[in-house]
UniProtKB/TrEMBL annotation:
Residues 39-211 form the Cation efflux protein transmembrane domain. Pfam families: Cation_efflux (PF01545). Belongs to the TMEM163 family. This is Membrane protein. GO terms for cellular component: cytoplasmic vesicle; membrane. Residues 1-22 are annotated as: Disordered.
Length: 222
């Protein structure tokens, strides 16, 4: 066989090095779903933050204001996952590692803020006015956030993506915070138990630190 007909060893190695397995269509579909859910979460967090901040200022509710402002940190996790599954980064393991650690950091940004709000409320003993808008918004979040959070946990497991699962955990924490604020608003309106909301906030802050550590280690996707 002539030299022209028989490729050399270097050519074989070069060909093998450039070959890539075809992406799994089901995996790519799940990645698109994760990105879509993150866009939905980002839109919801924007509305939730703006409306919640308005309602909190009108009612003078530190818990509601803190919950609304925490939406910015939770929205950051959505932006990170959108970045992760856009363009060439979709199939990049290094992008997944960076996104996973960035989501973990967003947990650690959320925890001290929630804790500071809770401690300040315990210290001042602030008593918020009744707010129908705040109650309606937090009740809606209790419906929307668990659905998004659980869906992202399932997608995170399918994709092996700690970033996606971590964002789902943040959605669930948002629901826990909404429950704490809602209970605080209702109970305070009925019996003036103003201290219930900040105590629940401290519990959520502790959970956020623990979940951030798990996300950093990549444990969320399992």
């Amino acid at each position: 066989m002539s030299a022209i007909e028989s490729p050399g060893a270097d050519d074989c190695c070069s060909h093998a090095a450039t070959e890539r397995p075809a992406p799994d269509p089901n995996w790519l579909r799940a990645a698109r779903q994760a990105r879509t859910l993150s866009w939905i979460s980002l839109a919801w967090m924007t509305i939730e933050g703006a409306v919640g901040l308005f309602a909190g200022v009108v009612a003078g509710s530190a818990g509601l204001i803190g919950w609304a402002l925490s939406s910015a940190v939770e929205g950051l996790a959505s932006v990170i996952v959108i970045w992760r599954f856009t363009g060439s980064r979709t199939l990049s393991e290094s992008s997944e590692r960076r996104a996973r650690k960035a989501v973990a950091i967003s947990f650690w940004l959320l925890a001290p803020y929630v804790a500071a709000e809770a401690i300040d409320k315990l210290r001042t003993g602030s008593d918020a006015e009744e707010t129908v808008l705040g109650i309606a918004l937090t009740a809606a979040s209790l419906i929307v956030m668990p659905v998004l959070g659980k869906a992202k946990h399932r997608l995170g497991a399918r994709l092996g993506s700690g970033a996606t699962a971590g964002e789902g955990t943040q959605n669930l924490l948002c629901a826990y915070l909404a429950a704490a604020v809602l209970i605080g608003l209702v109970v305070n309106a009925l019996w003036s138990w103003w201290w219930l909301d900040p105590i629940a906030g401290l519990v959520v802050a502790v959970v956020a630190v623990r979940e951030g550590r798990a996300a950093w280690r990549g444990e969320d996707c399992c």
